[in-house]
Amino acid sequence: MQAARGDMGPNPPPATLMASRREFIEKRNELAKRFMRAIFDANDEYAKAPEKMTPLIAEWSGQDENIVKQAQERMNPTTRLTHAQAERWWGSIGKAMIERGELSPKLRPFSDLFDLSLQPLST
Question: Which residues contact 89 (CB under 8 A, 6 or more apart)?
Fold first, then answer.
């Protein structure tokens, strides 16, 4: 499956997802919100000028800049996930993970797996 081929539709989900324990979000909700705000501010800066982020990503990841640039052409390194993208992810990757026994078939995607409530809804 490759987003660049259109396998995930015209607006593919991001290549990076974040996870947290529900208990942490409940107990430290304001901290979680501030963290997510910082992530989305970084997403916005990336969207304005991805080429300026190439050296930063290369330094952070320890990868050669040319490799990072090639990867940027094929994937979306941001973390914003729409409900429709989450449904698409669940319908392909999630279902495959269930078939392989990596996820329980009892999981319900939006009550058990995806919590999009901390995402800013603008942009």
Answer: 8, 13, 81
Q: Which residues contact 28 (CB under 8 A, 6 or more apart)?
A: none
Is the pTM of the predicted complex or chain greater than 0.85?
A: no
105's CB contacts (< 8 A; 6+ apart) are: 98
Going from the C-alpha of 30 to that of each of 26, 35, 44, 114, the distances in angstroms are 9, 9, 21, 19
d(CA 84, CA 11): 9
Alpha-carbon distances, residue 65 vs 53, 56, 69, 96 (angstroms): 10, 9, 6, 33
- How many whole angstroms separate alpha carbon 68 and alpha carbon 56? 10
pLDDT tens digits, 37-71? 888 888 888 888 888 989 998 998 899 999 998 88
Q: Report whether 83 contacts 11 (CB < 8 A).
A: no
Residue 111 sits at φ, ψ, to 5 deg, of -100, -25
